[in-house]
Automatic annotation (TrEMBL):
Start and end residues of each Blue (type 1) copper domain: 93-178
Protein name per Swiss-Prot or TrEMBL: Blue (type 1) copper domain-containing protein
Biased composition (Basic and acidic residues): 56-76
Domain of life: Archaea
Keyword Cell division set for record: no
Segments for region (Disordered): 27-77
Record keywords: Copper, Electron transport, Metal-binding, Transport
Residue ranges with Low complexity bias: 41-55
UniProt KW Ligase keyword: no
Xref: SUPFAM superfamilies: Cupredoxins
GO molecular function list: copper ion binding; electron transfer activity
Length: 216
């Protein structure tokens, strides 16, 4: 091999080595950038507050709760909605299904799907009393989508209410005013006409951590 040939081989070998080094450097840079993105995502995930996970029972009945004994709301809104293509026991729901409010709060029910009628469980309206003894009953009559209904709660205690057309589907709700005092609204739900509504009322009391009293 001539000196010139050996020089060409060495030059080509050097270029190959430089190319390999450049490839390694680019790969290392890409790996570092990928690691940085992974670290950033992990940091973001770690600093994001996780949403509370609903229990299977809450998911099945579409139960949600707003407020609590130490977080009473004023002038809140409850949505009356339909759940399309839902094959569970409660395709029509109030959301939130459980609401804790201040004494004197006005609750607004907003109908956002289907036809609904909001009524207290009270003999003047719907046979069984499941609101405080001194409390006034309420009844919205039939509401169409886009309609709303308001009621002001003056008497502390637990109020059970229903959608009259959909009681058979378990469309019921609770409003707790000021505190969960024992009364008609804290009794186990077997005294209502529709079995699924009674079961759902009892379930709501349990989710709200309200002591359920035996019927009678």
């Amino acid at each position: 091999m001539t000196w010139q040939s050996r020089r060409s081989v060495l030059r080509l070998g050097g270029l190959t080595a430089l190319g390999a080094l450049a490839g390694c450097s680019a790969g290392a840079a890409n790996e570092d950038e990928s690691n940085d993105r992974t670290s950033e995502r992990a940091t973001t995930a770690a600093t994001t507050t996780a949403e509370p996970t609903a229990t299977p029972d809450e998911r099945r009945y579409r139960v949600d709760q707003r407020g609590g004994p130490d977080d009473l709301r004023s002038d809140p809104t409850v949505r009356a909605i339909d759940i399309p293509d839902y094959d569970g026991p409660a395709p029509y729901v109030f959301t939130p299904a459980i609401l804790w409010v201040e004494r004197g709060a006005t609750v607004t029910w907003s109908v956002e799907g289907g036809t609904h009628a909001i009524a207290a469980y009270h003999p003047d309206v719907y046979r069984t009393r499941r609101i405080p003894e001194a409390a006034a009953s309420f009844d919205s009559d039939v509401l169409e989508p886009g309609d709303s209904f308001e009621h002001t709660f003056e008497v502390p205690g637990v109020y059970n209410y229903l959608c009259q057309p959909h009681e058979m589907n378990g469309m019921v709700g609770l409003v707790v005013v000021e505190e969960a005092r024992p009364g008609p609204g804290t009794v186990e739900g077997s005294n209502v006409r529709t079995t699924i509504a009674g079961e759902h009322l009892t379930r709501l009391l349990g989710i709200a951590d309200i002591d359920v009293q035996p019927p009678g």
